[in-house]
Recover the amino acids of this structure.
C-alpha cells in the first residue's frame, strides 16, 4: 500500500476568535456556536468489513516466518528494508521475531495515492540511507499485488550489488505470480478484494487496526 499527500485541512479545524489579555496577548477560543467535529471510534466505522485475518493469526504466522529467517540466515546479520508506509507494522513485529542481529532501513514508493487502484506509475518518495554493497538484504513488503512496485524495487536494489536480495511479504494476492516475482517468504494468500488494517490503509486511514479486514467503501 502506498501513500497520499496530507490534507491541508483537518476535521478539527474551526474558526477561532480571540480575547485580549491585559498584557496585550491574545488567547484563542472557539467562535460562538462553533463546535469541533467529533471523530467516531474506529471500531464503529461501517466501512470496516469482514475480518480476513485476526490479530492472533497474524502474530502466529509472523512467528513462523521469523523462525525461518533465523534459520536461513544463521550466522549473518540481515538488513531488513521496510517499504513504507504499509509494511511498517509488519516490519516491527517481524524484526522482533528474528533471532539474529538485524539492521533496518526504509524506502518509500508511491503508486496508489489515495485510491484503491494503482496508478500504474511507481514513484520513489524516500531512498535508503545505507549502502547495500555486500549485504544480505530482505525487502519487507505489506502486499504483493500486480508486482509493479516490487519489480521496480528489485531492479533498484539489485543495481546496488547486495550479497543477496530476498522478499518477505505479509500478503500476496491469489493472482500474484510470487515465483516469477522472487518472493521467498509469504504470510498469507488473499483474494483480490481491497483490504485494510495492520499497516494497510485507504487515504491514510485504518493503519492502526490490529487485524486485516475487507474495505467496504459503500457502507454507511
Amino acid at each position: 500500500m502506498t501513500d497520499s499527500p496530507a490534507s491541508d485541512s483537518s476535521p478539527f479545524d474551526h474558526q477561532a476568535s480571540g480575547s485580549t489579555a491585559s498584557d496585550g496577548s491574545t488567547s484563542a477560543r472557539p467562535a460562538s456556536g462553533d463546535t469541533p467535529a467529533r471523530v467516531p471510534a474506529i471500531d464503529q466505522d461501517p466501512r470496516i468489513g469482514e475480518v480476513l485475518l485476526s490479530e492472533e493469526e497474524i502474530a502466529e504466522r509472523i512467528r513462523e516466518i521469523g523462525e525461518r529467517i533465523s534459520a536461513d540466515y544463521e550466522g549473518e546479520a540481515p538488513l531488513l528494508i521496510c517499504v513504507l508506509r504499509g509494511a511498517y507494522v509488519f516490519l516491527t513485529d517481524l524484526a522482533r521475531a528474528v533471532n539474529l542481529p538485524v539492521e533496518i532501513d526504509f524506502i518509500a514508493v508511491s503508486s496508489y495515492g489515495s485510491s484503491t487502484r494503482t496508478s500504474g506509475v511507481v514513484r520513489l518518495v524516500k531512498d535508503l540511507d545505507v549502502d547495500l554493497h555486500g549485504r544480505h538484504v530482505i525487502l519487507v513488503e505489506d502486499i504483493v499485488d500486480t508486482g509493479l512496485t516490487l519489480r521496480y524495487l528489485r531492479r533498484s536494489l539489485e543495481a546496488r550489488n547486495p550479497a543477496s536480495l530476498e522478499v518477505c511479504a505479509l500478503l500476496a494476492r491469489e493472482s500474484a505470480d510470487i515465483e516469477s516475482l522472487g518472493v521467498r517468504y509469504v504470510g498469507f494468500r488473499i483474494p483480490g478484494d481491497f483490504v485494510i488494517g495492520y499497516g494497510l490503509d485507504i487515504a491514510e486511514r485504518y493503519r492502526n487496526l490490529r487485524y486485516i479486514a475487507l474495505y467496504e467503501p459503500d457502507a454507511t
